[in-house]
Every structure is written in structure tokens, then in C-alpha cells.
Write a structure and sequence with these properties.
heterodimer, A: two-stranded antiparallel ribbon, 14 helices, about 0% strand, B: Alpha-Beta Plaits, three-stranded antiparallel β-sheet, two-stranded antiparallel ribbon
């Protein structure tokens, strides 16, 4: 690897990191605005034009708050918890192709993907499952029954839904024949979006993504009405901010994964017909990708402000008794369809 | 048993159909409802800049009126304090000294007149009790502050300004019934009789 490559990758890493932070920051603003609009209110509009500086004000508020570490808590783990949540949230953006490759005039290829791990999907799932530890450690280290209950709920929920999520992806992997996120995106050129071939897997994946990010209607880990605040009851100041922020980064990354795996990533029909300049292809492709991401972020918020929360047994029933069997059935159907000729030849 | 209202519904625990059980149609319907609200006119508004329309007879912050010559109408009779169900009004009466005729309309006046805005329930009974048409409730909203004692309004805040153009308009509070009441000469307790007539 040359020096220029290292510098390019470093810039890309910083960009992806910055973009995910900024998008997460403005997701908090968007969430409050969308919540307000869906409830016939105006929403925050005092800080700056249309309240656009509201996230900054919130950030300053978070930093200024008193930092409290409970006396009875396990101090090291108490600090590791939110750090881990934040770390895993930021790590997932690495394998996502953020736009079409940029080919310079000298023929050098600049991919808008930090690294193309050939088992990208496995990597994603691995990192997402580490995210559970952040919540579990934080909830346990607080030494508070509400935190512990919240953490137990969160971890059991995330583990259960990870299963269904993984199973829903298997049918996709069977169809595409690769685990590399980059190849999956490339296969979906123009209209060949996976959602058209695997609508059912897509639906299951989106439902599980809601549960994985602890968003309504599956926001049991932090259900205020029952558990005070859930796993972050004892947290204050920026440590609380990290947990809340990690949730929004997760939402952004989940939207990006949904858009990449099922909705064609940066692909858009007719993009190469009207845009020919390689630089513009990259720019337009990236913009298309982000438009898709923002749509899914909106979907996340839209659902949150529409549906009430599930009861815990309903949540578990849905996960184990409905989603997992459905995902397995979907795998069977995918297998039968893709090996139809061989099966016919048997008889 | 006979129903008290016609709004009661008979609850049924019937089995859900397949479409109901998978929730999706209901969820989509709900999402369409919330989306329709996204574009609806908002019911809230930017308060300090935009104010809600209030009724013409709105009962807000009190004013102690002056008469047409600029003298205070209040004679510290204490009827408002007696009428006040929240016991928000207190006053100290004082005798008018020679030379103060331009300031106070009658021989007695309130040297101190306080309304505790935290106690006040804005019922308007003080206004009804006042025989001198001195105290009125206006359409002004009592502003909020951080200190409790700042809610005790003295004469400095209650008496309307002396300048003719800064007087507080209370004509909206004068309902048709009030005006009709004033027409009755027998009940005209509010006319300042000349000294001779009093004898």
C-alpha cells in the first residue's frame, strides 16, 4: 500500500466518522421536528433559524451537566459501558460503500468504501452484537435495579432479534452468493434491487432493525413509564449523551445497511444515462444513497411516533414464534426457487 | 341495567382474523393517519410573537382606574378585599390631605393596595364588588417571574398611568348588562355628588 492510499483512506475514515456524527446529531433535531409535526406541533424553533442550532445547544447542555458516578457502582465498567456503545456504533460504517467508485483520469480507482472485507455482512453482525455489551455493562455497573432490568431486557431483546435478522439475511446471501457488501451493492445495478427479489426478507430485516436499535415499537429497554430510564438511569452528563448518541448513530447505520442490502445502495435507474462524467457519477450516486438513508431514518421516526410500545411477552413471541419461523420458511422458498431445475431433474 | 349515556359500547373478545393478527394493515393505516397530520395546519404557535385570540371579556391583570381628571377612583372601602374568595387583596386606607384633591377623588384613599397574583384566581368578583368603578380586570396576562415576592403587585403596577394616551382601555369588560345597570338612576352610586348635594 502506498502512502497516498493511506492518506486517502485516513481522509475517508475521518469523513465517514464526521458524517455519521453530524447525521446522528441532526437526527435528534429531525426526530423532535417530525414528532412535533406528526402531533400538530411546531417543534423546536428557538435556537437559530428553524431551531437548527438546537443539537448544538443540547450538546453544550450535555457537557455542562454534572458528571455523577454512583458510589456503589463499578467505576471502571461504568465508564466502559457508554464508550463501548459509542465505539461499536461508529465501527459499523467501515464496510458500507458510500458511493460509486471514483475513477481518476490516470485510471486510479478511489473506492468510497473504507475497506471491502470479503465477509462484510458477518463483520456487521459481529460488531452489532458487541453493541449489546455496552448496554449490558452499563446497566450492570450502575448497581441499580432499574438499570439492571433495562439492561436485561435490552440484551435479551437484541440477542433474540439478532437471530431473526441473521436468518433473514441468509436468504439474501443465498441469492447473491457473496458476503461482501460491495459486491451485493454492485449486483443491484439500476432496477435490480434486492427488495424486488426478496421483499419478505427485506420486511423481516427492517422489523429486526427496529428491535436492534431499540427504537419504538420495540423500545422496551428504556421504556420510561416502567423503568425510569432503562439501562441508563444512573447516567448523567456526556456519558448519557454517548448512549443516546449511539442510538442515533445506530439508526443511521441501520438505515444505511437497509439501503445497501435491499434498496440498491448508491444505484439508481438511469443514473448512467444522464450522468457520464465519472466525478458526477460518484457525487450523484452518493447523494442518491444518502437520500435513501434519510428516507429510512424518517421511516424509523415515523413508526416511532405512530405505534405504541409492545408488551414484553408480545415482543418475545413476535421474535421467536413469528419472525424466526418466517425467516426459515423464506430460506426454504429461496432454496427451492434457486435450485428449481435441479429439483425437477431429480424426479 | 339501563345505560346512563348512549356512548357505552359492548366489549367483545372475538378471535382476531388473520389480517388483524398480523397487524400490518392496521399499522399501515395508523402510519397514514400520522402522515396526514404531518401536513396539517399546526395548532400551536410561536407564543410571544404570535398571540392567541382571547375573548373580549378576558379576565387578566387588574387595573386601578383614574377618573376623567386623573384622580384615583379607589376610596379604600375594602369591598373588593371582602369579596375576594382567594383573599388576594390587601390595602391600607389613608385620609386625603388638603392639596391632594387632584390625586385622589374622595376624602379617603388607599395608600397601599396590593394584589397577590399567585393567590388571585381572576374570578372578577372584586370588579363586581367595587362601588366606585375603580378596579377592573383587563386582557393583559400577568407575566411570569422567578421570584415569588415579585408577584405581589402594589399600586405602582396596578394604578393606570396618568397620561391620557396611556390609560388602560376597559371598555371591552363593560358588557351590555353592566351598561344597562348603569342607566338605572336609582343604582347610580358612582356619581361624585357636589358638596352641597350631600347635605
Amino acid at each position: 500500500m502506498e502512502w497516498s492510499d493511506i492518506i486517502y483512506k485516513s481522509i475517508l475514515v475521518v469523513c465517514v466518522f464526521g458524517v455519521s456524527l453530524v447525521v446522528a446529531m441532526y437526527s435528534t433535531y429531525a426526530e423532535r421536528k417530525i414528532a412535533a409535526f406528526l402531533q400538530d406541533r411546531l417543534g423546536p424553533n428557538r435556537a437559530g433559524p428553524f431551531g437548527l442550532f438546537q443539537p448544538l445547544a443540547d450538546g453544550v447542555k450535555m457537557f455542562m451537566k454534572e458528571e455523577i458516578i454512583p458510589d456503589v457502582s463499578n467505576k471502571a465498567l461504568f465508564i466502559i459501558g457508554p464508550s463501548l456503545a459509542m465505539l461499536t456504533a461508529c465501527m459499523t460504517g467501515v464496510v458500507i460503500p458510500w458511493g460509486p467508485d471514483f475513477v481518476s483520469e490516470s485510471g486510479k480507482v478511489y473506492p468510497l468504501q473504507i475497506t471491502d472485507v470479503n465477509i462484510g455482512i458477518l463483520y456487521l453482525f459481529g460488531v452489532v452484537s458487541i453493541g449489546v455489551y455496552g448496554i449490558m455493562i452499563g446497566g450492570w455497573a450502575s448497581n441499580n435495579k432499574y438499570s439492571l432490568l433495562g439492561a436485561v431486557r435490552a440484551s435479551s431483546q437484541m440477542i433474540s432479534y439478532e437471530l431473526a435478522m441473521g436468518l433473514s439475511i441468509i436468504s439474501l446471501v443465498m441469492m447473491t452468493g457473496t458476503l461482501s457488501v460491495r459486491e451485493i451493492t454492485a449486483q443491484q445495478a439500476s432496477w435490480h434491487w434486492n427488495v424486488l427479489y426478496q421483499p419478505f426478507a427485506c420486511f423481516l430485516f427492517i422489523v429486526c432493525a427496529f428491535a436492534e436499535t431499540n427504537r419504538a415499537p420495540f423500545d422496551l429497554p428504556e421504556c420510561e413509564t416502567e423503568l425510569v430510564g432503562g439501562y441508563h438511569t444512573e447516567y448523567s452528563s456526556m456519558k448519557l449523551g454517548f448512549y443516546l448518541f449511539a442510538e442515533y448513530i445506530n439508526m443511521f447505520i441501520s438505515s444505511a445497511i437497509i439501503a445497501t442490502l435491499f434498496f440498491g445502495g448508491y444505484n439508481f435507474p438511469l443514473i448512467y444515462k444522464y450522468v457520464t462524467d465519472p466525478m458526477w457519477v460518484t457525487i450523484v450516486g452518493t447523494m442518491v444513497f444518502f437520500a435513501k438513508i434519510f428516507f429510512f431514518i424518517f421511516l424509523f421516526m415515523w413508526v416511532r411516533w405512530t405505534l405504541p410500545r409492545f408488551r414484553y411477552d408480545q415482543l418475545m413471541n413476535l421474535g421467536w414464534k413469528t419472525l424466526i419461523p418466517l425467516a426459515i420458511i423464506n430460506i426454504f422458498i429461496t432454496g427451492i426457487v434457486s435450485f428449481w431445475k435441479e429439483i425437477i431433474a431429480l424426479f | 341495567m339501563e345505560a346512563l349515556t348512549n356512548r357505552s359500547k359492548i366489549v367483545s373478545n372475538k378471535e382476531m382474523t388473520f389480517l388483524e393478527r398480523i397487524y400490518l394493515p392496521a399499522i399501515l393505516k395508523g402510519m397514514m393517519i400520522t402522515l396526514s397530520h404531518f401536513f396539517k395546519k399546526k395548532v400551536t404557535f410561536n407564543y410571544p410573537e404570535v398571540k392567541r385570540d382571547i375573548a373580549p371579556v378576558f379576565r387578566g391583570q387588574h387595573v386601578l382606574k383614574r377618573d376623567e381628571n386623573g384622580a384615583e377612583r379607589c376610596t379604600a372601602c375594602g369591598l373588593c378585599a371582602v369579596a375576594c374568595p382567594a383573599e388576594a387583596i390587601t390595602m391600607v386606607a389613608e385620609e386625603r390631605k388638603p392639596g391632594e384633591e387632584a390625586l385622589y377623588r374622595e376624602e379617603k384613599y388607599a395608600s397601599k393596595y396590593e394584589i397577590n397574583m399567585l393567590r388571585c384566581i381572576f374570578c372578577g368578583l372584586c370588579e363586581e364588588a367595587c362601588p366606585k368603578e375603580s378596579i377592573f380586570l383587563t386582557d393583559r396576562i400577568v407575566p411570569s417571574t422567578f421570584e415569588r415576592n415579585e408577584f405581589i403587585y402594589g399600586k405602582d403596577k396596578l394604578v393606570e398611568p396618568l397620561e391620557e394616551n396611556k390609560r388602560i382601555d376597559i371598555s371591552k369588560r363593560q358588557t351590555a348588562e353592566t351598561l344597562e345597570f348603569k342607566k338605572n338612576k336609582q343604582l347610580a352610586h358612582n356619581i361624585l355628588y357636589p358638596k352641597k348635594a350631600l347635605k
